[in-house]
Amino acid sequence: MSNSMDDVAKEAKCFLIIGSNTTEQHPVFGTMLRRAVRFRGAKLVVADPRKIDITEFATLHIRQRPGTDIPLINGLMYIILEKGWEDKAFVAERTENFDEFKATVMNYPPDKVAEITGIPVEKLYEAAEIIAMNSPMAVIWAMGITQHIVGVRNVMSLANLQMLLGNMGKPGSGVNPLRGQNNVQGACDMGGLPNVYPAYQPVTSDEAREKFAKAWGLDSGPMTVDGGTVRGLSSTVGLTVTEMMPGILEGKIKSLYVLGEDPVMSDPDTKHIRHALETLDFLVLQEIFPSETSVYADVLLPGVSFAEKTGTFTNTERRVQMVNKAIKPLGDARPDWWITAEIAKRTLFLLSSFDKDDKEEERRKINMDALWAKWDYRDTSEIMSEINALTPSYGGITHARLLKGERLQWPCPTTEHPGTPILHTKQFTRGKGKFMAIDHVPPAELPDDDYPMVMSTGRVLYHWHGGQMTRRAKGLMQVYGEALVELNPMDAERLGVNGKKLLRITSRRGSIVAEAWITDRVPPGMVYANFHFPAASANELTQAALDPVAKIPEYKVTAVKVELVKE
Amino acid sequence: MVNITIDGQCIETEAGKTILQVAKENGIQIPTLCYHKDLSPTGNCRMCVVEVKGGRFLQAACVTQVWEGMEISTVSERVMKDRKLTLEFMLANHPLDCLTCDVGGECELQDLAYDYRVEVPSWGAKGTRYPVDSDPNPFVRVDFNKCILCRRCVQACAEIQVRDVWGVAKRGFEEQIVAGAGTTMLEARCESCGQCVAYCPTGALSNKMNYGTARAHQVKKVTTTCSYCGVGCQFDLLVKNDKVIGVSSNPDAPVNGMALCVKGRYGYDYIHHHDRLLKPRVRRYLLEGVKKERTGSPWDWVETEWDTALDIVAKKFKETRDATGADTLGFLTSAKCLNEENYLMNKLARQVIGTNNIDHCARL
């Protein structure tokens, strides 16, 4: 998020929620938005194919067809330009490439946009007026925007909109993606990505590589990969998770170390994932439960839950907060950081120890006297010191400060720095904000005669992702104990579904059977399914059609066929 | 600015503030029950009454604004008598099972009854007027016999959660809190966030999952950050005998204050679920040094000591790296784990192995 949750909730005159089921997926932030609407009179435009709960509070709900966000946003910007509602001063002072952008937007007149999105022209005008006339306006989105083959372009379109309206760098405005997992922001910040070191320092940058090579005791300079010789750090961008899985089948990946993740439930096209995991030479899985993925593991290492360890999570607004150990690790389980460090030490020992059969160049040469080369951490505050030294945006975020009650949002480069609740106040990271000319690209798989309906996927309030935790929470299971598939009453009538009936949903990749929830939350022609339950996981049906840049799968549009299961 | 006196103390303060606010700012304690700083004041419990010179009636401090020259007594005989009477009325039809009540020790009514040395009146209806545990909601235990009609639950649901599940039905002695139009909570579209429980001053609304497991003074509270979504709510884990037995709101939580969602407040019992992995496991073929086979005995799990499992992993990593190169190893780190742990996964992949094949579920 460019802004903070309380800032947006307190200061925004208007919210545009697009592709976020906020009250179910970020429930407490959802209540902050409800309060803003009810008690402060903030305006709310919800753009979502589904009639999600927050639409009850909406000034206006527009229902675009799945996968038509770009024409929708371009269409809104067309109207804003047509009416002269743009922030001309902001556009002139803080942005560039406006003309090229405008030329593209001009190809999206309301008539055409109405035809593509299914939103009537007058509603487009109404939406544009609400978001333009109520400033500052905050855009809020989540996976409904990103999980498309045009995920990156969708996000850039929203950035265009906010620059056009001058809604950047000030209270109550901004581009505000809601991060899903408790620490997905932190996992990205810490270099858990194939192209960057911590704090997004590119692996392709000589400077960054040299910095980490020096800190970690490796020869600096590019790594050469001839005949397995490995020195220094690799300058080759690695594979994303969505590339690793097919990569296994192509023989590119032989061994996999998975920490607290459940690809069988959470990755697209389950059958394909299972096949990939079966093909691996070696899978080590570090988990708290025997997950669906553990079936394929060669080694299963018992990690601990958040209640059994101390460290930090970073939330969606870049706020770093303490996680404090409340109980001892259960049984013989160990904190995950301890396990990873042990694996590192032992692997390093084997890679660096002398064996006369080893080729000289196969040995990993690490200068253990380098400042941050070692792995002998006594606790996570020592790891944080290393993070402070090597991660500029986390430079001043220490356990000691957090334990004193300081509330720190990165960037926080020094121990004196108070943190940064709002980004881009004076200028963008690259200087001027660049408008991007973005055209519509239809989803990879559209309905046809064989698979005439669209399925979108996501989660429900009572469950979390692959369900390993929430399916083991008794009360949550009492309220929501099996997968339900949302089906519009018109489709239900057509299919002869009445009451609690089982549906068979089939895509080109697989088939599931789940109970129907007949509801106008979904429009006719669309179903919505979740991936919380192995017996009927939506990911059996999804496909690994990826955004070319972000490599994110298009979970939000899958062509399916829906049938009534005859009893 | 206006000048007032409270209990003889001259105070200059801003117009528009309530007596309760000014008293609090000046270190003067006025007891409250229905009032809560997060909720709009209603003045309906009458615990915070004070005497204003010249006034015919006692005034509720939480809703009465100060005016120039106001003279207030918070401890006059009349005030103390009135508050005591109010408490007597509440206790007249309140079950007196404090010995076994779950919220004993953190009950605001109990504290006030103690402070005011209230003698429980012999009149009134102390029996169970309503069924105990009357709602099937799996998280919230409802016992309206203990309800003092302060309406904090109604307000918490309307003003914090903005869901309007709770309302007030009937009047007089029959007055009661109801979900929806007298339905169950879930039928009234309750999201089971437990905000009403967090704000209830008595045992009328309590937590069902840990009912009867511990009282306030028997638990250790550990403030931590939720492990579900990216909002980053903080709360206190309630620990007894090294076991997490519950979650309670921590009013100082920077993001969420007292608010939590159903998963954060009630989705904690997975921590001690019997499925938890408690020992490292390796497939038998790895211990016997035979070829990998995905069926039968070679594929059986064998529980091992840490050294055995960790050495196998290190050996396999080296073997893969030697045989096919560093870039044939992949690392999936975790958006559920700590920053420190993610940093180490990044260091392991890059420093030890020498590959950038590291990712996590940000895209999924």
Please, could you describe this protein's structure?
The complex is a heterodimer of chains A (567) and B (364). Chain A is an alpha/beta fold and 567 residues long. Chain A is built from 20 helices and 21 strands. Chain A has a six-stranded mixed beta barrel with strand order 16-20-17-19-18-21. Chain A has a five-stranded parallel beta sheet with strand order 3-2-1-5-6. In chain A, helix 1 packs parallel to helix 3 and helix 4 packs across helix 8. The longest helix of chain A has 17 residues. With 364 residues, chain B is of the alpha+beta class. Chain B folds into four domains: 88 residues, Ubiquitin-like (UB roll), CATH 3.10.20; 142 residues, Alpha-Beta Plaits (2-Layer Sandwich), CATH 3.30.70; 48 residues, no CATH class; 40 residues, no CATH class. In chain B, the strands form six sheets. In chain B, strands 2-1-5-3-4 form a five-stranded mixed beta sheet, sandwiched between helices. A three-stranded antiparallel beta sheet of chain B has the order 10-11-12. Chain B has a two-stranded antiparallel sheet with strand order 6-9. Chain B is elongated, with a radius of gyration of 29 Å. Chains A and B meet through helix 3, helix 11, helix 13, strand 9 and strand 10 of A and strand 10, strand 11, helix 6, strand 13 and helix 8 of B. Strand 11 of chain A pairs antiparallel with strand 13 of chain B, so a sheet runs across the interface.
